Amino acid sequence: MRILISVGLAALCATAALAQHIDNARGPVPVMEEHAPPPLQNPDNSDVRRQRAYAMQPPIIPHKIEGYQTDRNANRCMMCHARTRTEQSQAPMISVSHFTDRDGNFLAELSPRRYFCLQCHVPQVPVKPLVENRYIDVETMLRRGGSASTLPGRE
């Protein structure tokens, strides 16, 4: 009986501690409480390509996409980024990797597995990052004469 009471008290204390835990991404709201999400920010609409934050990062979308239809019936992104439209739109063409299927075969058109652009590409919003980005690209690291073992966080 004492063991059962002890386990029950421990569980109660753990639940109380969890309820008071604050997650930085959620703001000053305890984890176990519901809260309204912050309002959506206006996305960057500068149409300026940005440097990638890490190797192999999909490029971000440097313009507004509100109201774009991207479903199984239509993909609004391809009105500008398809290889047949880039000369007229002056938008960058989608990568050749988007024309290969899962077996590595080259296709004449966009691969179905790359059709939903927002699975990888996202609009940029000018907000303060939640965590500091300490990524150093390979070229910068080599210019400094470093190696993977000298990168921040690899002590």
TrEMBL record:
One annotated Gene Ontology cellular component of this protein: periplasmic space
Alphabetical UniProt keywords: Electron transport, Heme, Iron, Metal-binding, Periplasm, Signal, Transport
Binding site for heme c 1: H63, C77, C80, H81
Function field: Electron transfer subunit of the periplasmic nitrate reductase complex NapAB. Receives electrons from the membrane-anchored tetraheme c-type NapC protein and transfers these to NapA subunit, thus allowing electron flow between membrane and periplasm. Essential for periplasmic nitrate reduction with nitrate as the terminal electron acceptor.
Family of the protein in this entry: Belongs to the NapB family.
Native organism: Azoarcus indigens
Subcellular location: Periplasm
Protein name per Swiss-Prot or TrEMBL: Periplasmic nitrate reductase, electron transfer subunit
Signal peptide (UniProt feature, chain positions): 1-19
Post-translational modification note: Binds 2 heme C groups per subunit.
Molecular function as annotated in GO: metal ion binding
KW Chloroplast (keyword) present: no
UniProt-annotated binding residues for heme c 2: H98, C117, C120, H121
Pfam families from the UniProt entry: NapB (PF03892)
